[in-house]
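To: structure desk
From: M.T.
Subject: fold request, one chain
Message: Could you run this one when you get a chance? Sequence is below, nothing fancy, just the single chain.
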Amino acid sequence: MASVEDTKRTNTTLKFINESLETFPNTKFTASSLDFYSGQPKDNGGTFFEPFQHIQMLQGLERTQPWKNPGGCPSITPIDEHLDSCGQARAVWNVILSYLTLNQDELAPGIVEGKGWKHSGDESLLVLTEPAPWKVESFMDKRDLQKPHILCFLSNSSPLEEMVPSEAELYTILWTVGSRMLDKAYQHHRIVPVIIVSAAGYRLRITQGHVDHEELVVRMTPVINFAAGEHENWDDFAQTLCWVVGNPIGVTTY
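Reply: Done. Structure tokens follow.
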């Protein structure tokens, strides 16, 4: 439960978010790199997300072998050239979900089973899922008031630039943090970490963001190119799956 002082601090953050959205895209932020494999930020700030162990993911994929599912498992290739960048990114997300949820045994669970991530029921986030030059395909959280973290997949029509956050990423972070902080059940949290699996076409990165008082902090991994398909870039694809089923960590409360 948030104290009176916590609520005051939260209101200061919400004011900053509101002003940032009003002046968008002229939004001030600090950007730094994020290690794709360890999840460690390079800005010496707090770590709020721990990817699932890579070796365990590889073992899980070998055990479940979703590509042998009788109902079929989609692959990134062959590339559908009729789709725009947003549509291609959406296809990549479908492949990611399929690898995590399917099993060679139709009756057996996929890797994601038991990891605790559920589709978010926050209706205030639905505006970001409406078709546009970019859209959020899915929001997930732990449904745990002690874990304010939100994970989402963002499909974008604008190309990703190394170490330059897109307008879609910035807006998604601001809106998502603001929506969660408006919920009184989460107002004892100083930090609401947003983890974005961000894709444009077949290029993808992990973007992590949060608002600390009156500072928008953005962290980005290098951009990974999956144009040759997941099998030609297997380790990076498996690591992407590790981010989707990772663990929310870190001190987020006041």
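Reply (cont.): The radius of gyration is 18 Å. Let me know if you need anything else for the meeting.
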